[in-house]
Amino acid sequence: MAMEALGAPPIIVLVRPQLGENIGKAARAMLNFGLTELRLVEPRDGWPNPSAGPAASGADIVLEGAKVFASTAEAVADCAHVYATTVRKRGVTKPVVGPEEAGRAIAEAQGRSAILFGPERSGLETEDVALARAILTVPINPQFASLNLAQAVILVAYGWSRTQHLAVPTTEELLPPAPQEELEGMIAHLERLLEPRGYFAPESRAASTRRTLRTMLTKPAWNHLEVRTMRGVLSALEREPRD
Question: Which segments of the chain does DSSP mark as H helices, in order?
Fold first, then answer.
């Protein structure tokens, strides 16, 4: 079999997962950070599981490609690098790394890497951890070191994504600032409405009042749409009220 390319994405292995809903949430967490290969070891309720799909919220590519194995050893047989996620000592002495350190090592490694996650209630057994080359853990409150399965997967997947320079999603497409001509038109429009209502009186303070008004209106970076909207507001105020 040909050697995998350098830095292949890690395989997520859920060992004896209990709830289909949690498998779906883990799949969603994986795809959020670009991971798609999921392996399941003895899922308690069998596979496929009807509860997984709705919980995955569209991460169907992960669920459809999931493979089931009879043992953890079989699930990682083709992997050169295996990490066991645990926050408890299991009597096995192994190197301990965090998510980002593991992510960098995986990104630089030749051959496939697998990351093991244990059952929701008990975590990985000593025999599972014994298969790993290193223990992967996160700094966590020792007084409450309880993470659900999806939380654990998302922390580890994020560590991997830091090596991949994924694009940061933007909440909206920002419009460019409006040209000065449009801004001047808006200010002049407002002044035209305020003048007959005595806003700039007394005359001795008119220039200062106009400067203050201009400063206030030029402080935000108005874009073309915002200027048009404000002009519409001013035009509406300019019209005679409807009956």
Answer: 20-32, 52-56, 60-64, 72-75, 99-108, 126-130, 149-161, 180-194, 206-218, 224-238
